Amino acid sequence: MAKKKDSFYRLAKDEGYRSRAAYKLLQINNRFNVIEKNDTIVDLGAAPGGWLQVARKISNNKVVGIDLQRIKSIEGVETVKGDMTSDRTVRKILKTIEDEGVDVVISDAAPNLSGNWNLDHARSIDLVESALEFAKQVLKPSGNFVVKVFQGDMFNDFLEKVKNNFAYVKAHEPKASRSQSAEIYVIGMDFLNTPVKKNEEYDVEITSIGSGGDGAVTINGFVIFVKDVDIGDRVKIKIEDVKPSFAFANVVEYL
Questions:
Q1: Fewer CB within 10 A of the end CB, N or C, for the chain?
Q2: Where's the active site on this chain (predicted)?
Q3: Which of 91, 44, 90, 96 is nearest to 71 (CA)?
């Protein structure tokens, strides 16, 4: 009876969405603008298709759904029956999108629940880490990522992994989530397809001074700004923050 009294459940029925979860993605997109009208989108764990319907409504470009179950057809949406952790599935997706690349990877998938919270949380983390690895393989530079995860002891570690790969990261609970639910959505924007990652360390020689007065060095053509150094200094640096076109680092040791 509780489900029938849920306003988003009734609204989904009235507006033709396959699940009340459609409103979570609509609310996320209204706030963060993760999907735009010309984006190519891949939805992981897409059955029954509520998020695919929303993605198709927003974007005029290619929308692809992946699930272990067959997804009932949706006009303008391509579906792949497969496991998102499989290399074969990744190859299928890359073939489906051809040379376009993926602008947005989304996932509202949840593990099979056992009733044991610690186990269910661990399964959720395993699932979202697989979604993140998939996104890293297919996203265009500056692409976006939205994934549902259950809160718990391992959540912050996962959030840090997302922060290492996206310029902007936010944990968000849309209003359409049930109040008693432990789910939360992690939004990653501006995929950092860069040769350096946060917390990595490098031995470098400072080759120039940037316009802001910081030292500058390049690694594989990628510019890193370093504080409190002069041209010619040899230092060990630690990457502190990564942006799509450059990074910031601090000196760990003068060599």
A1: N
A2: 148 (proton acceptor)
A3: 44
Residue 196 resides in a domain: no
Task: Name 23's Cβ contacts closer than 8 Å, sequence gap at least 6.
Answer: 8, 11, 12, 17, 174, 176
Q: Is the pTM of this model over 0.85?
A: no
| 234-242 sheet: strands from edge to edge | 201-205, 234-242, 246-254, 222-226, 215-219, 208-209
Catalytically annotated residue among 3, 62, 92, 148:
148
Per the CB < 8 A criterion, the answer to whether 212 and 228 are in contact is no
Does residue 117 register a pLDDT over 80? no
Q: Are 18 and 53 in contact (CB under 8 A)?
A: yes
Verify whether residue 92 is a known catalytic residue: no
Binding residues for S-adenosyl-L-methionine: 49, 51, 67, 83, 108
Q: 91 lies in which domain range?
A: 2-191
Binding-site sequence positions: 49, 51, 67, 83, 108
Average pLDDT over residues 166-184: 84
